[in-house]
Amino acid sequence: MPDGLTWKNLAILATALGLAGMWIGNAPADDEAVFPMPRDKTYLAECGGCHTAYAPGLLPARSWRRMLAELGNHFGEDASLQEPVRLALLKDLEDMAADGAFADLRMRRVAASVPAGATPQRITDGSSFRYIHDEVPKSFWQRKAIGGPANCIACHPRANEGRYGEREIRIPQ
Amino acid sequence: MKGFVLLLALCAAAPGYAAPQQDVLVALTVEAGGAASPTRGEKLFRGKFSAGKSAESCTACHGDDPKVPGQHFKTHKSIDPIAPAAQHDRFADAAKVEKWFKRNCPEVLGRACNAQEKADFAAYMISVK
Questions:
Q1: SS3 B70
Q2: Looking at residue B106, which CATH number applies to its domain?
Q3: Which of A120, B10, B67, B106 could form a disulfide with B86 if both were Cys (CB 3.0 to 4.6 A apart)?
Q4: Residue B7 falls inside a structural domain
Q5: B-chain residues within 8 Å CB-CB of A148?
Q6: How many domains does chain A have?
Q7: B103 vs A contacts (CB less than 8 Å)
Q8: Is the four-CA dihedral B90, B95, B100, B102 of positive or negative sign?
Q9: Domain extent at residue A112
């Protein structure tokens, strides 16, 4: 038996490998990105009528607060809601925001990519969005069925359930 | 056998989507205080307006054919067909109908739709076969 190959050293090696494996395994995997979504159907009905029901975890809470305070001019359109509906939606959005209390590692990375003083409104302007989509050719965005980066659900068919995983991507022709 | 024939006759006489849409249309017509005109409704649907805040026509999002899915002119989200003949839950829920008139009329017309316009529009969509 070579010098140093003892049961104790083997145990240390196995423990180190195991810990490294757990550390790597804990990292968010792009192939199964899942964000929490409001359980209430209101979000899908009110917001998802005109665009993808974007996962709240794609923006920090302060962005959602500003957005829901300015619904009268929502990207140029009047998307005003009844106050009780607005407040209920805002609560879900804050709870599940990228910097919400229960945010997972993926969401906290999104939150960390937003500069401290900024309250971004367009998810697609964010550096985390641009980083993760940098391999998508420009011509894809211009396809009729896609139209632009705001149309998540065109390529992520289960985006309205918060599912953006790589293995679920279907790019329309 | 008799029951089966009766069932077939019922299916032919009353397509599944007819009932709730008729209720909605009747309510809108009563509100308008006059008969609803599918022809005027189609004119409204296809009309181009410059007073709107962003979309210049209903067809900007709903497409030219109410029986096929449209696409939101800005977000590019696919929008279910607006005619009940193709999408059975359209014009079946009065509150939902009212909500979308309230949201979309100012976008296109620059003002709210009146009761007659709503009745005409619904009459046209329900008449599309």
A1: strand
A2: 1.10.760.10
A3: B67
A4: no
A5: 75-76
A6: 1
A7: 78-79
A8: positive
A9: 31-168
Structural domain including B64 reads 18-127
Nearest CA in chain A to B80: A49
| A26 part of a folded domain | no
What is the length of chain B?
A: 129
* Single-letter amino acid, residue A22: M
Quick: pLDDT tens for B12-57.
444 444 579 999 999 999 999 989 999 999 999 999 998 766 788 9
Give pLDDT tens digits for B85-123.
Answer: 999 999 999 999 999 999 999 999 989 999 999 999 999
Nearest by CB to A51, from B54, B75, B103: name it: B75
B107: which chain A residues are within 8 Å (Cβ-Cβ)?
77-78
Query: Of the candidates B54, B76, B100, which has its C-beta nearest A151's C-beta?
Result: B76
Q: Which residues contact B75 (CB under 8 A, 6 or more apart)?
A: A50, A51, A52, A147, A148, A150, A151
pLDDT over threshold 80, residue B9? no
Straight-line distance from the first to the last Cα atom of chain B, in angstroms, rounded to the nearest whole number: 30
Structure tokens at B60: 């900007």
Number of structural domains, chain B?
1
Contacts of residue A150 in chain B, CB cutoff 8 Å?
A: 74-76
State how far residue B20 is from chain A, nearest Cα, in angstroms: 20
